[in-house]
C-alpha cells in the first residue's frame, strides 16, 4: 500500500493565487487545503494536520509571522512553514527565519515551479536526521545556530546580510546564481532591485572569506556568482 500524499496547507487571502499554488502542488502529487485568514488557518492546522504550511505574511485579520509564532510558542505546532512575502522593508527581510519561525520564504511574484522546489527542499530538511544546522564547503563552515562562520577553524566576523548572502551561496555551491536570484533571496527585492548591492556585498565577502584561503567565490561574467574550488 502506497503512503498517503503529503498534506500542504496554503494560506493566502488572494484566492486566485492560493488556488494556483494549491493546483501546482496537487499536480506535483501533494494533497492540499486552502485558508484565507488567520482564523481559518488556525482551525485547519489542527483539523487538517498539514505536513507543511505555505503562509502569506500579510493576512486580512493578522500577521503570518504572529500566527506562526503562536503556533510555535503557545500551541506546540512544529509544522514546517514557507512564508510568502511581498515586503521589502529591511527589518522584514528575514524576520521569520531569524526568529526561527519559518523554514524558508518566497518573494512575490514567484514562479510556481520554484515554490514547489522550495516546498520539497524544506520537507527533506524537516525529516528526522534531514535538518542540519551546519553547512560546509572545502575548509569553510557555516553554523546556523551559533550564527558563526569559520575558515580552517578561524572565526570570520560577518554582518547579518553578509552571513545570509554567504549561506545562500554555499547552500547552492557549484550552481551559478544570478544577481536577480540573490536579490530575491537575500534582500527580498520584489520591485527589480539594484543589483549593484550584490556586487558590493560580494566584494565584502571576498575580503573576509577569500582572504583567509584559496578563493571560493567566483564571478561568472554577465550571469552572476558561484561558490566552487579554483579550477573546478
TrEMBL record:
CDD domains listed in its UniProt record: trans_reg_C
GO molecular function: phosphorelay response regulator activity; transcription cis-regulatory region binding
Keyword annotations of the record: DNA-binding, Phosphoprotein, Transcription, Transcription regulation, Two-component regulatory system
GO cellular component: cytosol; protein-DNA complex
Domain OmpR/PhoB-type: 132-229
UniProt-recorded name of the protein: Response regulator transcription factor
DNA-binding region: 132-229
Domain Response regulatory: 7-123
GO biological process: regulation of DNA-templated transcription
Modified residue annotations for 4-aspartylphosphate: 56
InterPro entries, A to Z: CheY-like_superfamily, OmpR/PhoB-type_DNA-bd, Sig_transdc_resp-reg_receiver, WalR-like, WH-like_DNA-bd_sf
SUPFAM superfamilies linked: CheY-like
